[in-house]
Amino acid sequence: SDFRFRRPTLYPAELRALRGRFLTIAAGKVYPHATGPDERFRGGGVVGGASGAKGGRLGTMSDPPTLSASGPAGSGPSPSSPPGVPVLCGSLSRYPVGLGRAMHEAGYRALGLDYRYQPFQVDDIGAALDAMRTLGIRGCGVSMPFKLEVLRYLDEVDPLAHRIGAVNTVVNEGGRLVGYNTDAWGARRAFEEVRPLAGCRVLLLGAGGAARAVAFAFVAAGAHLTIANRDRRRAEALAQEVGAQAAGDTDLAAALDPFDAVVNASSRGMTDVDPTSPIEPSQLRRDLTVMDIVY
């Protein structure tokens, strides 16, 4: 296995994925692939953001803005806040964790943004979004189990998020809530820090919101994807939608020899849900790349 995925360490690729969310919230546009102020993603297709650009395929997007302490250059007015009062962001999850706050606030400091991040424990996502409007919370990450349900409560959904069918970032544009998906490119960039996706035989565990984003991004990058889920029908439906090679139930995880990599995008491994591993340790081997999105 790739032991870099087994230590609770924040790697540059993960910071890059988070940077996409920071830019999305700060600029009101989606730049999920950006790793630097001048980088473009080298891929096919165009994805439109809240600015009204058309498209729905994963691929090249306009250059991200440069950032300063006053906000992104060229993005219009920064979120209004009284002097000395930071802009509030947060996360909406049934199972909030403190690590997300630590990562986001480290990113804010690195990018010179006077933002704060508060994880919220949520049972009613619709009511939480109403509160987001009322309190003027600038942006929120959306986590399990709301990445699919949240779409029905939004005023607008970015074309990429609409195509994936899942939202992990909500931006408050003066009371108008816009949904984006930065999971797809974040997962791709993190994985490709270790090995190329093109031609890689990947077993994806899960068929929920996070798994949908991983599936779309990995297939777009040329991976040979197999999807396994406890509900086989959901795995098969997602595989057909994204063009994966095969699908089945979680018994597929019992024999990993046909795969070069395995990605856990299920709830297995979450302390508050099911802390057990979805993979038997005996199945791991040194040439197998393991990516676990549960932290």
Q: Can you walk me through this structure?
A:
By secondary structure, this protein is of the alpha/beta class. It has helices spanning 12-27, 98-111, 125-135, 159-164, 183-192, 209-220, 232-242, and strands at residues 67-68, 71-72, 87-93, 115-121, 139-142, 156-157, 169-173, 176-180, 201-205, 224-228, 246-248, 261-264, 289-292. A six-stranded mixed beta sheet has the order 4-3-5-7-8-6, sandwiched between helices. A five-stranded parallel beta sheet has the order 11-10-9-12-13, covered by helices on one side. Strands 1-2 form a two-stranded antiparallel ribbon. The model is unreliable at 1-14 and 30-78 (pLDDT under 50).
List keywords for this structure.
295 residues; alpha/beta; six-stranded mixed beta sheet; five-stranded parallel beta sheet; 13 strands; disordered N terminus
Q: Structural class of the secondary structure composition?
A: alpha/beta
| Overall geometric form | globular
Series of secondary-structure elements, N-terminal to C-terminal: HEEEHEHEEHEEHEHEHEEE
As a percent range, the share of helical residues equals: 25-40%
Count of separate DSSP helical elements: 7
What is the tally of beta strands? 13
Contiguous low-pLDDT stretches (5 residues minimum) are 1-14, 30-78
Q: N-to-C terminal Cα separation, in Å?
A: 18 Å
How would you sum up the major sheet?
A: 6 strands, mixed
Question: Strand portion, in percent?
Answer: 15-25%
Strand numbers in spatial order across the main sheet: 4-3-5-7-8-6
